[in-house]
Amino acid sequence: MEKPDKSPTESKGERIAKVIARAGLCSRRDAERWIEQGRVSVNGNILTSAACVVSESDKIIVDGKVLPGKEKTRLFLYHKSAGLVTTNKDEQGRTTIFDKLPPDLPRVVTVGRLDINTEGLLLLTNDGELARYLELPATGWIRRYRVRAYGHTSQAQLDKLKKGITHNKITYKGIEATLDKQQGDNAWIEIALKEGKNREVRNVMEAIGLNVNRLIRLSYGPFQLGKMPKGAVLEIKPNILKDQVSGFFKNKA
Predict the structure, then answer these.
(1) In the chain, what are the domains?
(2) Alpha-carbon gap, residue 219 to 169, rounded angstroms
């Protein structure tokens, strides 16, 4: 393998992983892994390290295809149905969200994930850097969910979650949980959290003796599911996007 003809000490250009992420192929972390796997070349040279700076004149190839040009950052709301996997390709052959997206949608990545049995709001963007920014707990955006869980609970028990909880050796930060109603053997609960660890809602409910049998994400930060039909995609207007994530665009400028 040849060494790339660009070094990270050059004053112009940007890191290759950042350029790939902004093109909407993946996140920056995924781009770094792709580079380590030898899937990226610059000007005919296969990269083995993400410590490479490129400019607009460089020819970047990812998986045998020319990297798409830089596009204006866009954000979409998507109403995910239960039964869809949040991944580009599933090894088990299950249907993914990308199998169901409208064909005229640009290449997009997801902001975080919803597991196969979770439905509701999922954010999509053509800018991998924006996806990473919105996923970070430091962004401070609250995710809200509506939960139906088998079992009985009380508001007093749910209030204890505000202090955080440890379950199966994983510590979860404070969660706001409000009991909506107890309907037979099922409790309906509204949950708000910032951290968003893998299967956090299901695991926290399990820790207090509840088994989640339906989970709907209602909102992600300022963006709401509202009355969007299942499978619908709605683009956020550019001026609203810049207003809601002004910190991202300020750092990007």
Answers:
(1) 14-66 (3.10.290.10), 75-138+223-252 (3.30.70.580), 142-220 (3.30.70.1560)
(2) 28
